[in-house]
Design goal:
With 148 residues, the chain is an alpha+beta fold. Helices cover 49% and strands 22% of the residues. The chain has one domain: Yope Regulator, Chain: A, CATH 3.30.1460. Helix 2 packs across helix 3.
């Protein structure tokens, strides 16, 4: 029963943060109602995301189909998932290297995510929904770092 109460509080906190961020930063969008808020961070293809579970993400990724196309130079080859993942990291590396040091120094943790649709390098840190001004400051800092 305690889990139900904490989940409702978390949902209410997320709803309040979502409303505040959508009001103060109209460039946020979402793919699913009530889901993460996303914002493009400039020409390199970086994406900023605030998630319902209290994380701030800066990520750079590529669609698996796009990677396969680059690897095969337009010919339809059956490429293995591991081979595609290695190649994706190669394509993403210059953009990720450009921002890695600054993000890690600012408390972000780096991970690589991959599924059947995309490969992404993600830098994430937790945010406190009880301190919305700090979330807005972190978002503005990210936007400034990426030139958005």
């Amino acid at each position: 029963m305690a889990d139900d109460v904490s989940m409702k509080t978390s949902d209410a906190d997320w709803a309040a943060i979502r409303a505040r961020l959508r009001g103060s930063l109209p460039s946020f969008y979402e793919h699913e109602p009530g889901g993460a808020l996303m914002m493009d961070l400039g020409v390199d293809g970086w994406l900023l995301e605030v998630t319902p579970d209290g994380r701030l993400l800066c990520q750079m990724g590529m669609a698996i189909d796009e990677i396969k196309l680059l690897m095969s130079e337009g010919t339809p080859e059956d490429l293995g998932t591991d081979e595609v993942a290695k190649q994706a990291k190669y394509y993403l590396q210059p953009a990720v290297d450009k921002h890695r040091k600054m993000l890690l120094a600012s408390g972000f943790e780096e991970t690589t995510d991959m599924n059947e649709e995309y490969v992404a390098t993600t830098f994430q840190r937790t945010v406190d929904f009880q301190r919305p001004e700090k979330i807005e400051e972190a978002i503005q800092w990210c936007r400034k770092q990426f030139g958005a």
